Amino acid sequence: MKITDHIKNANGKTLFSFEIVPPQKGVGIADLYKNIDPLMEFKPPFIDVTTSREEYIFLERGNGLMERKITRMRPGTLGICSAIQNKYNVDTVPHVLCGGFTKEETEYLLVDCMYLGINNIVALRGDAMKGEKYFEPTKGGHKYASDLVKQIQDLGTGKYLHEEILSEENNSFCIGVAGYPEKHIEAPSMNYDLQMLKKKVEAGADYIVTQMFFDNQKFFEFVKQAREIGIDVPIIPGIKPIATKTHLQMLPQVFKIDLPEALINEVLKCKTNNDVREVGIEWAINQSKELLDFGIPVLHFYSMGKSDNILKIGREVF
Ligand code: FAD
Asked: What atom in ligand 1 is closest to the CA of residue 180?
């Protein structure tokens, strides 16, 4: 079922969902299941599965020579989506990237989604490749997420890249896109970024999922500004509980977000990682309760592997 239909059917009740990351190549799926199992208590209507960009690795070839190869460290997004759908009977949402894929490869991936009964896609540009400063579009691929949204939208109406195929079947996808309550790092201003977000909605996006944030006021302001410029699709906040002291540096560096002073101070006072986890849980519970009062359609958690903290938060909030 489409995410937008799940939201409609919930009649104003906030739904619970979460995002998982495929395991590193060579690691089985059992650990992933162990972390998903407890969260099924909250009856998530959908689970997102991220996609990782390709990266360069260097192999020693003797005599000091290195050979550069390209690889994906966490492949298997679509396989995991299908496995989860079968095991738990929930919808899964693969993240589809511009970076690293030609338009043709994307088309084949979308066709696979149709056969697998996957009705929802999150369309993203992706970041620059590791070691590169700026995002470079892949040869034959898209430059912006809005272009990818358009391809997905077109395919749903039978407009493939090189053919138009009219069909009785409804192959349309429900398309999610990323939103940034603290602005995307490359956007020159918040207003500019919101206008680009609007472009994604105009191209066919059905809903927005936000980057993680730790200060709800930033989300409330983001929603207000989005509504003011006519973005009227559901906006789903993404929440990540802090889990280690290293997150104080890692999260701002990787996700280009700020952490509130009060949260930083609480984390710095902690003696053990377990204490930090508890601080993260407490902060996320307060954030979640306020977001539910605000009237969000879905509360979306970034699980990044371990789910024990999300279980505790869910039990306090749902
Ligand atoms: P875009 O919407 O294309 O925006 C990129 C930048 O270009 C922005 O600064 C925007 O303002 C600007 N822009 C957009 N359109 C135009 C235009 N037409 N003309 C001029 N400027 C424009 N990354 C992964 O690799 N894998 C994942 O699975 C993944 N999942 C994510 C899930 C969520 C919810 C979020 C928030 C992010 C996720 N990311 C993921 C990270 C994402 O790929 C990066 O943040 C990336 O840098 C931007 O992607 P985007 O889709 O927002 O890009």
From this structure: 36
Pairing of strands 298-302, 207-212: unpaired
pTM for this prediction: 0.97
Task: Name the residue range of residue 28's domain.
Answer: 3-317
For the chain, how many structural domains are there in total?
1
Q: How do the pLDDT tens digits run along the chain, 318 residues long?
A: 999 999 999 999 999 999 999 999 999 999 999 999 999 999 999 999 999 998 888 999 998 999 999 998 999 999 999 999 999 999 999 999 999 999 999 999 999 999 999 999 999 999 999 889 999 999 999 999 999 999 999 999 999 999 998 877 777 999 999 999 999 999 999 999 999 999 999 999 999 999 999 999 999 999 999 999 999 999 999 999 999 999 999 999 999 999 999 999 999 999 999 999 999 999 999 999 999 999 999 999 999 778 999 999 999 999
Ligand 1 contacts CB of residue 209 (under 6 A): yes
**Assigned token pair, 305:** 């592997």
Cα within 13 Å of Cα(291), Cβ side: 30
Tell me, using a 6 A CB cutoff, whether residue 199 lines ligand 1.
yes
Phi, psi of 235 (to 5 degrees): -115, 120
19 catalytic residue (yes or no): yes
Pocket flag, ligand 1, residue 74 (CB < 6 Å): no
**What CATH number has the domain bearing residue 287?**
3.20.20.220
Using CB atoms within 10 Å of the CB of residue 275, give its burial: 0 to 12 exposed, 13 to 18 middle, 19+ buried: middle
Catalytic residue among 19, 107, 182, 266: 19
List C-alpha distances in Å: 182 to 82, 179, 188, 245: 33, 9, 12, 22
Q: How many helices (H) and strands (E) does the chain have?
A: 11, 10
